[in-house]
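Lab notebook, bench 4. We co-purified these components, and the gel suggests they stay together. Before we commit to crystallization screens, I want a quick structural picture of the whole thing.
Request: model the full complex, all chains together.
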Amino acid sequence: MPHAPVAKHEPSPWAIEFRGVGRTLPSEDGPKSILTGVSGRLARGRVLTLIGPSGAGKSTLLSLCNLLQTPDMGEVFIWGREVRTWLLAELRRRVGLVMQQPVMLPGTVADNLAVPSRLHGRPQPDGYRLLQQVGLDPSLLQRPAAELSGGQKQRVALARILSNEPDILLVDEGTSGLDRESAEIMERHVRRLVASRSLTVVWVTHDLEQARRMGDETWLMDKGRVVEQGITEAFFEAPQTEIAKRFLRAGLRADRRTLAPGEEDES
Amino acid sequence: MSLWTLSLTLAFVVAAMLVSLWQRLGLEKDMLVATVRATVQLLLIGYILKFVFHVGNLALTAAMVAVMTCVAADNAGRRGRGLAGRFWRPFVAIAATEVLTQGFLLAGHVIPVRPSYIIPISGMIVGNSMVACGLFLNRLRDETQARSAEVWTLLALGANPKQASRAVVKAATKASMIPTIDSAKTMGLVQLPGMMTGQIIAGADPIQAVRYQLLIVFAIMASAAITSIVLGLLTYPRLFNRFWQLLV
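Here is the predicted assembly.
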């Protein structure tokens, strides 16, 4: 793909755009390619589900969007601006990342929810409303965050990101540690945000049913490449590539078997 | 004490070497090197100090303090495992500590402006500052590694390097001050500090010796704090690259 000048500032219809993105990491047996030639784009208010086997590069692709990792090749545009030309604090405020393992910061739930506004020098958020947004009981506010269950932590982590008022949300296996009910609550709340404020979402999951439920578009990744991109319904109904057909067959047979957490490449 | 009586104390070294040989600790060679180095260095410094005190020149005194600071910074830099760079960050931290602490003692007329006061007290301040540097750098790296998930989480929320590293810098600062505080707590109960012991043996009034020792205790407490804070300000940016990604 040709390189566009980075100086363009007009609002872009594309929330996220990858142009020939590559990422290589050093390893014991020489440089290892994590991502190769990834291109594609996602419009505002759309939900992209990203599927593929462990180690396909899904988490790495997410972490390029808010520059927690730097692409070695190609460019990543957020709202039409290359990530490396953004003010970092602003980029990461607007592109929120829900990590696979939620990390609670020291203090209470309320302290955790107050962190983003403190970082960005903004007024304290309404913790009550934030917890309601993710379906948690506001009575949790004064509880030490470390004492919560896994599902509660995951939702507090989501609420903490929402207090930044992001317009793009990246979810990395956000529900893999949750029971089905908690996972569906998460899905519902994210879906509601997509509808109410045109949140753009990239949702990485091993759960094919979830990918189908949540997605407007779906990309299948394998060995660092995007092997198929399409509208979610079409992708699941009529996959085009042999590799996608095989992956879907294997995945559906395994049903809701989840791969061991931590196998996915870390961001 | 004559050189003859002093040489009798080499019996201690011989005893330690015999233990090492007997237990096959393999430390005899190190002990020999240590004994020779300590002897040569101390005898040498004895003559240098005698000369400096005799001349009584302040520029010469300052030069000696500068040399001490450089050696201490070099030593602390080795312990930093790359975090502090080779030399100049520990140097700035130790020098700032020495200038502030010693400056206060001199400006307040707590000690007289004489080489025989300035040099030994500087030695203690600089030595303590060097230890604090090493502790701080080790702990900063360990804390950052242990709490990297927390640091990454803050970065992902948009924290800048200063905000993201605040908790780990604080923990490292605390850790580097604890030994100084602990030794101050047991001072006089567990051990009689070296300076006081020396003064008493040299015939000083114990009450006077205690006063000087207290001065040192207070000064090194301040110096541990100053060192960690200055070094923290100089090193936290090195935990991150220009895209605010954690490197450690």
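Residues 1-55 of chain B form one domain. Worth comparing against the SEC data before the next meeting. The CA atoms of residues 107 and 113 of chain B lie 9 Å apart.
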